[in-house]
Design goal:
- The two termini are 17 Å apart.
- It is elongated, with a radius of gyration of 20 Å.
- It is of the alpha+beta class.
- It is built from 5 helices and 9 strands.
- It has a 9-stranded antiparallel sheet, with helices on one face.
Length: 235
């Protein structure tokens, strides 16, 4: 099964900079023309942030005093091609930030992906599995009239954290109720299906940020979801 991906996010977190609001505009000037539009929030405060919107690719990049965020949709592993927006402007902005602010250090990086596993003919076949049928009925066996349910898998080691939250999905109206929401320009009609929603997050304490590091993290996310789907189909 090919999952639908309404939103994914890369978030590089830095040591906060008190000089950020005075210095960052010189960094961003060359990148403004690449965006459809931009927006400044909390202007003239230490938490000032700039959001760049790229309507053609339904992507937003946020440059703030303590982090750099990229949010988009679709399979993220397919975005790691030459001269993609991962290269320019995202990783270019990351490099420029480290060069501009003398005491800037990377604390960690977070990748997050929301997957939708829609109901299909394949799922109908799965329903014949006694193991799967028992699994789906389990919430109602615990609490009568359950309207929503989720199972959370969490792995924390040496400051790193990887988690999967897996539960039922009743349609696109659920997406904007999640902590990671699609950006406003994404057409949600494609995601108005029924099935399962999987929220994947991986926080890695690493100062090394590169295109390969990010691509490997997303490949790990896709592999985890593939394994999850394989497990619930076992008969």
């Amino acid at each position: 099964m090919t999952p639908l991906i309404p939103v994914y996010q890369i978030e590089i977190r830095y040591s906060p900079s008190l000089e950020f609001s005075r210095e960052y505009r010189n960094i961003l000037a060359p990148f403004i023309k690449l965006s459809t539009k931009f927006n400044i929030t909390k202007e003239n405060t230490i938490e000032e942030a700039v959001s760049f919107f790229y309507d053609e690719s339904d992507t937003v990049i946020i440059f703030s005093w303590d982090r750099l965020v990229l949010k988009s949709h679709g399979n993220p592993t397919k975005k790691f091609v030459a001269n993609s927006f991962i290269d320019i402007p995202f990783l270019k902005l990351h490099k420029a930030r480290l060069e501009k602010f003398e005491y800037c250090e990377v604390h960690n990086v977070l990748v997050a992906v929301n997957y939708i596993l829609p109901q299909s003919d394949n799922l109908t076949e799965v329903s014949s599995s006694q193991k799967f049928s028992d699994f789906i009925r389990m919430p109602d066996n615990i609490l009568t009239g359950v309207t929503d349910w989720a199972i959370v898998l969490d792995n924390r080691q040496k400051g790193d954290s990887e988690s999967i939250a897996f539960g039922n999905y009743k349609g696109a109206m659920e997406l904007n109720n999640r902590s990671l929401r699609p950006i406003d320009t994404v057409d949600l009609k494609e995601f108005d299906v029924k099935g399962f929603l999987v929220e994947y997050k991986n926080l890695v304490n690493s100062g090394e940020i590169s295109k390969k590091v990010l691509e490997d993290l997303f490949k790990g996310a896709n592999a985890a979801i593939k394994n999850l789907w394989k497990q619930i189909q076992l008969k």
